[in-house]
Amino acid sequence: MKRLTLPIAALLALTAPLYAQDATTPAVDTSSWNQGGGEQDEALHLIPDHQNGIDTYEVCSACHQMTGWGLTDGTFPQLAGQHPNVIIKQLADIRAQNRDNPTMYPFSLPQEIGGAQSITDVADYISKLPMNPENGVGAGDDLEHGAALYAENCVRCHGDQGQGDNEKFYPRIHGQHYEYLIRQYQWIKEGKRRNANPDMMAQIQKFTDKDTKAVLDYVSRLKPPAEMIGEPGWENPDFE
Ligand code: HEC
Ligand code: HEC
What we know:
The longest helix is centred in the N-terminal third of the chain and has 15 residues, at 50-64. By secondary structure, the chain is mostly helical. Helix 2 packs antiparallel against helix 4 (84-95), helix 8 (143-153) crosses helix 12 (209-221) and helix 10 crosses helix 12 (209-221). The chain is 46% helix and 0% strand. It has two domains: 8-17 and 37-132 and 232-239, Cytochrome Bc1 Complex, Chain D, domain 2; 143-228, Cytochrome c-like domain (Cytochrome Bc1 Complex, Chain D, domain 2), CATH 1.10.760. It is built from twelve helices and no strands. Bound molecules: heme C (2 copies). Residues 11, 56, 59-60, 62-64, 76-77, 79, 87, 90-91, 101, 103-104, 107-108, 113, 122, 171, 183 line the site of one heme C.
């Protein structure tokens, strides 16, 4: 069992200075958003081990919560219910420093959680957790505009319900915390999220702040299928 002994505030304080390095993030290499290879390919072809998924997730739970529901203020995204291939790709990208995540980086490394097998195991485990029934949403004052923008600009990749596509590595975005969606979207638009999809980047360049808020408010209110959503107050029995 891997246990985190420091309280989370201390962990964040420890890693905080790394944020400074973020200022000069290079522009997105538009050819390489999903190069594959390396650990990503390896992890995609391994058979998940449930117990190691639980043991590995214990490290993650310090930030993403025991439930995988993250925090409503968007500091930590909900992971529960995300497609396994998306989790594998994001985790492999973060480990390979193809996506900057200074807070999480030290906890994502092989010496902390193990090799490709642990990526497979934790991705499978997370993807099967019930999702947050009360995720953070936006102001709710511009939803018609949001719906129209979504239909025109996002459906072809993220699906009509925000469900994404496991095979194509398109993330599930429904039920995600609004504040997290805003941050990622802005970073994708500006090229700060280096593993972003170049077609998506191009698609959203014309969006104003008003458009961004409207479309992501709409997305945050799209409901995942009922059977994927947990009960309010659900506690993860694997960590009792
Ligand atoms: C110290 C806190 C911390 C720990 C521990 C941590 N994470 Fe994270 N994680 C974050 C933060 C913060 C973000 C969002 C970063 C951003 O805004 O780009 C994140 C983002 C992610 C994402 C991207 C989600 C998305 O929607 O794109 C994945 C996947 C992820 N974490 C998986 C994990 C896994 C698996 C573990 C355990 C092995 C883990 N994290 C441990 C803080 C943490
Ligand atoms: C051409 C396909 C495509 C289009 C169009 C597109 N996206 Fe994306 N989007 C992606 C892919 C692929 C990713 C993940 C990139 C990566 O691997 O990091 C992503 C990531 C995101 C994320 C970050 C999710 C996370 O969990 O970190 C958000 C938010 C998002 N898209 C919202 C939107 C919205 C809203 C629209 C419409 C205005 C849109 N996207 C249009 C393909 C697309």
